[in-house]
Give the backbone structure.
Amino acid sequence: MFAFNQMIAIGSDHAGFEMKEYLVNNLEKEGYHFQDFGTDSEESVDYADYIHPLAKSIDKGSIEKGIILCGTANGVAMTANKYRNVRAAVCWNEQVVILSRQHNDANIIALPARFISCEEALTLVRLFFSTNFEGGRHERRVQKISDIL
Ligand code: RB5
């Protein structure tokens, strides 16, 4: 469950920049705190340059959860999921968000900025941080994701 003193990692490429700013501006008013890994404008960049440092901070445990954005969410999720302790879930509707937390214990929400609105993104992020992992049989399944690494 989200604690209001918890630091959240956020990062995007140019395609996700506007939505990233929208989320930070709105959620800071609600008490969320962010470490912003960039990018800082709509100038074209390579998403991996911003997502590797963010994912490393979650992998080593210095930040617990994060939000990443690009046009489709796929590039940022693929990058983040290279790290053993990262479970980045591509999320485009409320049910997918809920299940990503309940069943997969996702620790990063990956948002497709070119396919959902800023208002939808805000709703999805709030839901992500207010939904708990169910544990039980899912604990074993989540464990097996990284067993091979
Ligand atoms: C950038 O044009 C776009 O390729 C990127 O934001 C993302 O969708 C890649 O997966």
